[in-house]
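Our working data are protein records whose layout never changes between entries. The record below serves as our worked example for the rest of this section:
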Amino acid sequence: MNTLLRKALLLLVSISVSSTLVAGDASPARVWLERMSSAMSRMSYQGTFVYVRDGVVETMRITHVADKSGVRERLFSISGPRREVIRDQDGVRCVLEDSADAVEDPVVVNSFFPELPISVIDGENSGYLLEMGGQARIAGQLARRVSILPVDGYRYGYDFWLQEQTGLLLKWALFGAKHRFLAKLMFTNFVMGDVVDLAELESDTAAEDFVELKTFKSQKAQLAQADPRWQPKNLPPGYLLESHSTTSGAHGQSEHLVYSDGLAAVSVYVEPGSDAQPPLQGSSHIGTNNAYSRQAGGLQITVIGEVPALTVKTIAQGMASAVASN
């Protein structure tokens, strides 16, 4: 379980929001989020930002260029664990000091900065509402706040501060119950357009130190074709199966399922029990990720996600009920 759990944590630490959002009647907020999605991929920008999570502060530098040569991006750490990610027409390559296992998962694809390909922004059972907020000044830029508000206790919410003229994302914050902030990202300096220094796209790291990653989109399309053996009998409102994969090992077959409400994602691992390791039981958390583990029918079930503890416990209990009934 240790390897799979570590991979799941690495996958979920990338604050990635990469699916379709569904919310109530909030046209102005929807328009702003659509502007953000377009601007973050089609415009050139550069800056230094601070990322705060679970009391740990990291400082990162990003250069994102969109021109006739296509989209090119370089992201690297100034403080904290060594990280460097390069994205271009050749794919995604990275150096991660904190874990070699990262090369097996889409750890840093779309990391830190959310993508919101919005196709539908209404629906009574979405789990979220969109809300426009006030203005603020961030990194010398005037920004407008847009909030994604959870309607129940099964998901977190987000505040986004978008540059007034372009919609570029200057700050975001993840929050839980009573709007208590759990993680934040904010630019401390920021430029855009022709003043972006293209020289910063060039890395001084040796080419052989980089490892190529497959894109999350390609992997998700491949995994989604499989049919799971078990699914939770009860799921929190709005959560649906997004992908599924199986692996075979010395003790039998293991399954990995991903459930999403369109914004949050939860990983479910179902593995054969092992006498070599004590069973995992109960709740745990790392940073903004909560996990819940239990056993059923000789299987170890672990659920983890950047969601409230209630969500992972509900899904784990639903999965245990499904396993016990077979």
